[in-house]
Write a structure and sequence with these properties.
Length: 163
């Protein structure tokens, strides 16, 4: 079955590599205009360059998804680049730090929770606020391996994905 996403505007968080980048490639190959984000300008620029080299209409912006203002700026950027957003995919996530909970610095634990929980919330509310006035849009939140139970030595990741 061939998927057509012709001229659909798709935002994918955490898409400079891995699963997010693969989704950008697949959706772009199906005709979507993709907007990606990652934490650093360099990773976004490299990924966008690679997508464009594949003939995909792509753009991107560095964005810390745990910061609502930055996520809203990402949505503004996407709409400025390609028009109204049709699909928003919350893919950004952190799995590290690894190790016994008693030895994980609290700031690193909080960073995982902020990205995996607040990042998903921020992307969701930003997308919904844009979809509701138009009466359409698709929101996709990726779960991850920790959603069905604890993962040894990954307390922050497991608890955030169970959320």
């Amino acid at each position: 079955m061939e998927m057509s996403m012709r001229d659909k505007v798709v935002v994918i968080t955490g898409a400079s590599r891995g699963l997010g980048f693969a989704m950008a490639q697949a959706l772009g190959a199906a005709g979507a205009k993709v907007v990606i984000c990652s934490r650093t300008e360099a990773s976004v620029a490299g990924a966008v360059e690679s997508l464009r080299a594949q003939g995909i209409a792509a753009s991107g912006l560095a964005c810390e998804v745990s910061d609502l203002a930055q996520v809203e700026r990402l949505a503004d950027f996407a709409e400025g680049a390609f028009g109204p957003i049709d699909v928003w995919i919350n893919n950004a996530g952190l799995s590290a730090p690894w190790g016994p909970s008693a030895h994980i610095p609290s700031d690193r634990f909080h960073s995982v929770l902020a990205t995996n929980i607040l990042g998903t919330y921020n992307g969701s509310v930003t997308a919904i606020r844009r979809f509701l006035p138009r009466g359409r849009g698709k929101l996709i939140n990726l779960l991850g391996r920790g959603d069905s139970g604890a993962i040894p030595l990954q307390a922050a990741y497991s608890s955030s994905k169970s959320w």
